[in-house]
Write a structure and sequence with these properties.
The chain contains seven helices and four strands; from the N terminus they run ααααββααββα. It is globular, with a radius of gyration of 18 Å. The relative contact order is 0.16. A four-stranded antiparallel β-sheet has the order 1-2-4-3. By secondary structure, it is an alpha+beta fold. The chain has helices spanning 3-8, 35-50, 56-82, 91-107, 132-135, 150-162, 204-214; strands at 113-116, 123-128, 167-175, 194-202.
Length: 215
């Protein structure tokens, strides 16, 4: 293989997940990981941990733990790609990095929204209307309260912790309000009636540091 061909080839670990027929490309696009392959592997991952968990909360913790290590690696990858010599020190800047650069590296698109809680200063929300991890996973009735997106919340926690922003991250499924999210569906699946909300609750130490930097 020529040097030019080598420089143009993309390592599979550098590719985001594909999306059928819309944003993020198709599984036939060499720049994306096969979505069907990911859906199969993730389904097997959920079943593996389900057989070893005694409760829904334990299963979610296991999925979060599986995603945490991925988050640490993704942080390294994003930092390497950006060629930046500085690191983020402010909460909002770090969350914007997560909802944009990290999301694009993983899913080929930015998160749909980043919001700050009105009631709690230490809480922020990253919103995705089409989270891959729950779009292609069918949760049985006996696990009706399970958040299949807990894996992504673990990734977020890993990224934040690796960057020095200790936080508790949880995934929640929230019903769509009337008229909310009018964008076209890009997964080829029936329109969802809910969205994924990743609630980020920072530790007091991180909040104190951010307040000190603001002065």
């Amino acid at each position: 293989m020529s040097r030019a061909a080598q420089s143009n080839s993309t390592n599979i670990l550098d590719r985001p997940l594909g999306r059928s027929g819309g944003r993020g490309g198709s599984s036939s696009d060499g720049n994306y990981v096969s979505l069907s392959a990911f859906a199969y592997i993730y389904s097997e991952l959920v079943q593996y941990h389900q057989g070893r968990a005694a409760s829904i909360s334990e299963l979610e913790r296991r999925l979060e733990s599986a995603g945490y290590g991925v988050g640490l690696k993704v942080l390294e990858l994003v930092a390497y790609r950006s060629k930046e010599t500085k690191r983020e020190t402010r909460i909002m800047n770090m969350l914007q990095l997560v909802s944009s650069s990290v999301w694009k590296a993983l899913f080929g698109k930015a998160a749909d929204s980043l919001e700050r809680s009105i009631d709690h200063a230490d809480e922020f929300m990253i919103i995705d209307y089409e989270p891959i991890t729950s779009t292609f996973v069918s949760v049985p009735q006996d696990l009706g309260q399970l958040s299949a997106d807990a894996y992504i919340s673990g990734i977020i926690a890993g990224v934040l912790d690796g960057a020095g922003f200790s936080a508790r991250v949880t995934a929640h499924s929230v019903e769509l309000e009337d008229g909310e999210y009018s964008k076209s569906n890009t997964t080829g699946m029936p329109p969802r009636k809910d969205k994924a909300v990743f609630l980020v609750k920072f530790s007091p130490e991180v909040l104190s540091r951010d307040a000190a930097l603001e002065r």
